[in-house]
Write a structure and sequence with these properties.
The complex is a heterodimer of chains A (about 325) and B (about 425).
Chain A: H1 30-46, E1 61-66, H2 72-83, E2 87-92, H3 104-112, E3 118-123, H4 128-135, E4 139-145, H5 151-165, E5 172-176, H6 183-194, E6 198-202, E7 218-220, E8 231-234, H7 252-259, E9 271-273, H8 286-289, H9 296-316
Parallel strand pairs in A: 1-2, 1-3, 3-4, 5-6, 5-8, 6-7, 8-9
Helix pairs in contact in A: 1-5, 1-9, 2-9, 3-4, 5-6, 5-9
Chain B: E1 13-22, E2 27-36, E3 39-44, E4 53-56, E5 61-64, E6 66-71, H1 84-93, E7 96-101, H2 112-125, E8 130-134, H3 148-154, E9 158-160, H4 169-179, E10 185-188, H5 193-196, E11 201-202, H6 205-210, E12 214-215, H7 217-234, E13 238-240, H8 246-257, E14 262-266, H9 268-272, H10 294-306, E15 311-312, H11 321-324, H12 341-350, H13 357-363, H14 366-371, E16 387-397, E17 416-426, E18 429-433
Classes of the chains: A alpha/beta (about 325), B alpha/beta (about 425).
């Protein structure tokens, strides 16, 4: 008694942490990635038990909103939420108010009225997740926004590579094909660079975006460049995103002849990945897709535990800095 | 050619003790300026006030008021976004004494009837003098020329298919050949549409990272080069709208040095920002042409300094809130600028020492007036009073609530800027005062 205690800052009631989202790999630090992969690893072990459901997120609500078709991503998020005992709700654009011309903002306000804890959004337009984040109080997980980002795909790819090769540092990944239209490629280039892996992009000049080297990757137009890589990551030819008459390649036949990933173009032991859905016989030879070194189903399994980790991390663990717009630079 | 609400008497006033700065008249002195019945009557020290209203100008800059050669007033057809009354009030608040409105409205200003009704509206509503450009082609569809002679007689201030390029080279050539007899300027929106198709932002490292379809700078510069070649061949003048790319500035400079009578404008946003700003995905950073690289921006600033680019134009493009409250990709092109142009340029170019204040004042006033053959605002005895009183030290925050425009799609929302308009006198009448 009689002593005067000066209350240090640490004793003040903590401010609520900023609401976190997973919109872009660019929002993450290396520590965040490592923590997420470690969490995914522990969920992977839990799924080996007889009862696969964990009570961790009981009482939380996860809403999946998909404005683009998806099989693996939407099912993976839904199952991930269910494995963690969260309540889930899935909304597809077809058959919803979107058909009646509702704006994304109004959809966000409507969904927000149910107080969801997480909204998982897939949308054909870049910037849609930021817009939803502005009009709801939920954590937003970007499940693909146009050609911009697909961060959980990149995380599950890192998880897969790490499980297979035992490391990420200095792993060399060749990403082959239609980089221009690929959100998977953009997220993966950033994610692989973040963890110290090396990335080479391989494809026709028309499908490699001008200026992409600034992200820290190399570019080659020769398919032989994949030989040097530890992992060959094959991208889908996204014909649905190519305007008629755009002439990115003269024909699929010529594309496949020049850049298709065939048994003769890869080394034995080289791992092959593909985000799916595959165009067998176009960007990837069926013999490569079905070979033992192909990790395509492993990727799908990894997707489940990585998405469990993302949901768990957003709703429970310490803060990941939220990317806030930089103040516009003067001069 | 310029039309304003009639009926109000012209003002008597004295602005006392301001730094009077007129780059054209080569005045830079602290003194008084007296306006009698809307005309500059005397410039000098310690003037008699003659019982006029006195405005204290100490610490402020008195300059020729601004002329905006590129405004979208949205009438007819877009009255929810802007009207002649709201757009000219916004312009007055931005220090403008005159503006030119673009014809890409609904319906397009491509006939004497539509133009005539706009002029009648302006005589009722316009807070400052307004000129209307008419379309180069019917419906701005790029196939048939409008009746340029009749439109000029009706009062068109110039011709433009702004918002759309004139795609066919032969039609561009005909327009150059024919428009001369109208005595009005052609103003070109240079965009090669197959190169810009689907483009959301400048093609470069930022678009590669964000995944946006690129709108390459060459989509502009190939058309600038084409139009300058045709203008040289036909020995006709032309005005290039909203330049954004280094290659365009280089081509313009080369053409001017060979004697082509080409003028050009640049917007505040292209002078102030680069494509890096688009990382925020703020739909108020989406415009056509898009924000370009730091190198392009440097070339625009250099072109403005050396006079290759003679005009700063806002390309004020109001959009309804719900149109911009969508993902970047779904948002329409265009940002507002009338009420923030001087502050933006002052904050981003003058304060950091990139462009002298005198140059900015000239490029916002005499430059655009010359490009369209309008009378240059001047601070000279006997000249109509077109004056702006500027507080270059005033710092303020750009807020939606402060706008007179019906729309608030400004890239500066929420930002602090320096440089504020205190008084605008347009055609002898006080149009704005704060």
């Amino acid at each position: 008694m009689g002593e005067i205690h000066v209350m240090r800052e640490g004793f003040l009631p903590p401010k609520p942490p900023p609401r976190r989202h997973l919109i872009s790999i660019g929002d993450l630090e290396r520590d965040d990635v490592e923590r997420l992969l470690a969490t995914a690893g522990s969920f992977s072990r839990s799924l080996e038990r007889e009862v696969k459901k964990l009570p961790t997120l009981r009482g939380f609500t996860v809403v999946n909103v998909f404005y683009e078709s998806s099989t693996r991503t939407s099912s993976s998020f839904e199952l991930a939420a269910k494995r963690l005992s969260a309540d889930t709700m899935s909304i597809k654009a077809a058959g919803s108010s979107v058909d009646k011309g509702e704006s994304l903002k109004d959809t966000a306000l409507t969904l927000g009225a149910y107080d969801p804890d997480v909204i998982v959004l897939r949308h054909p337009q870049i910037g849609a997740p930021q817009l939803i984040a502005r009009y709801t109080d939920a954590h937003i997980v970007n499940a693909g926004d146009g050609k911009h980002q697909h961060p959980t795909q990149a995380l599950l790819d890192l998880y897969t590579i790490k499980e297979e090769l035992g490391r990420l540092e200095d792993v060399h990944v060749a990403i082959v094909g239609d980089v221009l239209h690929s959100r998977v490629a953009r997220s993966n280039i950033q994610a692989l660079s973040l963890v110290g892996a090396k990335v080479t992009l391989v494809g026709p000049p028309t499908l490699i975006p001008r200026g992409i080297e600034a992200l820290g990757c190399e570019v080659s137009h020769e398919i032989e460049a994949i030989q040097a890589a530890d992992v060959v990551y094959v991208l889908r030819m996204q014909q649905e995103r190519m305007a008629k008459g755009a002439n990115y390649v003269p024909s699929l036949r010529e594309y496949t002849a020049r850049w298709g990933v065939t048994p003769g173009r890869i080394r034995p032991g080289q791992k092959v990945m593909h985000p799916g859905p595959m165009n067998r016989g176009v960007e990837i030879d069926p013999r490569v897709a079905d070979a033992a070194d192909a990790l395509i189903e492993t990727q799908v399994r990894a997707g489940l535990v990585v998405r469990m980790a993302v949901l768990y991390d957003l709703l429970t663990t310490g803060p990941v800095p939220v990317a806030s717009p930089e103040p516009l630079e003067v001069a | 050619m310029l039309y304003v609400k009639s009926g109000r008497s012209r003002d008597d006033l004295v602005v006392r003790g301001a730094r009077v700065l007129d780059p054209v008249e080569q005045i830079d002195a602290v003194c008084d300026v007296r306006v009698d019945r809307g005309v500059v009557a005397q410039i000098g020290a310690n003037l008699e006030t003659n019982g006029h209203r006195v405005i204290e100008g100490e610490g402020l800059v008195l300059a020729p008021a601004f002329v905006d050669p590129h405004v979208h007033l949205r009438v007819p057809g877009g009255e929810d976004e802007e009207t002649i009354a709201s757009g000219t009030a916004a312009a007055a608040a931005g220090g403008y004494c005159a503006l030119l409105a673009m014809p890409n409205t609904d319906p397009v200003v491509d006939s004497a009837a539509v133009l005539g009704s706009l002029i009648e509206d302006a005589k009722r509503e316009a807070a400052i003098p307004v000129g209307f450009l008419a379309a180069i082609t019917r419906g701005q569809e790029g196939s048939e020329l409008t009746e340029m002679v009749e439109l000029a007689q009706q009062g068109a201030a110039g011709f433009s298919d702004d918002g759309r390029p004139l795609v066919a080279p032969a039609l561009m050539r005909r327009a150059l050949q024919y428009h001369g007899i109208s005595g009005r300027r052609l103003a070109l929106h240079c965009e090669e549409p197959t190169l810009s198709r689907g483009g959301q932002m400048h093609e470069g490292a930022v678009s590669a990272e964000l995944g946006f379809t690129g709108y390459p700078s060459v989509a502009e510069s190939v058309m600038v080069e084409r139009d300058l070649s045709l203008a040289a061949y036909e020995e006709q003048p032309l005005h290039l709208l909203h330049l954004s790319a280094r290659e365009s500035v280089d081509a313009l400079r080369a053409a001017q040095s060979k004697g082509v009578a080409a003028t050009a404008e640049v917007t505040p946003h292209h002078l102030c920002l680069t494509d890096e700003a688009v990382r925020t995905l703020d739909s108020n950073l989406k415009m056509n042409p898009p924000l370009r690289s730091a190198d392009d921006r440097a070339a625009l600033i250099e072109g403005l300094r050396d006079g290759t680019i003679g005009s700063i134009a806002t390309d004020h493009a109001p959009h309804a809130r719900h149109e911009k409250e969508v993902p970047f990709e779904a948002a329409p092109f265009g940002v507002t600028g009338l009420e923030t142009a001087f502050a933006a340029v002052h904050t981003y170019l003058v304060e950091p020492g990139l462009v002298p204040l005198e140059t900015v004042l000239e490029r916002m006033s005499a430059g655009p007036a010359r490009a369209y053959g309008l009378d240059e605002p001047r601070i000279a005895v006997g000249a109509p009073a077109n004056l702006v009183l500027l507080d270059t030290a005033a710092s303020w925050r750009v807020e939606e609530s402060g706008f007179r425009s019906r729309s608030a799609n400004s890239w500066l929302l929420g930002q602090r800027v320096t440089g504020r308009v205190r008084l605008t006198v347009a055609a002898g009448r006080t149009a704005y005062e704060s």
